[in-house]
């Protein structure tokens, strides 16, 4: 009977990363789908909902450089980026 090889751990990590990014993209896109239900449920205007979404996107973009600086300053970037480099090199 042939022996079945185990799934390499890198594929598990790549799968979990893919699912995490897929869920994050879905969460970022939900406000546009929920505008009409939010209007009817809470009585908010479309402008109020759009303003809240705009502030969310603005803060998301504003925090990015500071998060990167904190990531680099913590020393984890050098240790934690090696697996991502290996994944990038392996996929090319």
Q: What is the structure about, briefly put?
A:
With 92 residues, the chain is an all-alpha fold.
Task: Describe, in plain words, how this protein is organized in 3D.
With 92 residues, the chain is mainly alpha-helical. The protein has a domain at 31-91. It is 84% helix and 0% strand.
If you average the pLDDT, what whole number results? Answer: 81
Helix content: over 70%
Strand percentage, roughly? under 5%
Rg, alpha carbons? 20 Å
The CA-CA distance between the termini, in Å, is 35 Å
The profile of the biggest β sheet is: none
Structural class: mainly alpha
Total number of helices: 4
Please, what is the oligomeric state? Answer: single chain
The low-confidence parts are none
Coarse morphology: flat
Give the SSE order as H and E letters: HHHH
Number of strands: 0
Helices and strands, with pairings:
Blueprint: H1 9-33, H2 35-42, H3 46-73, H4 76-91
Task: Summarize this structure as a short list of keywords or feature phrases.
92 residues; 4 helices; flat
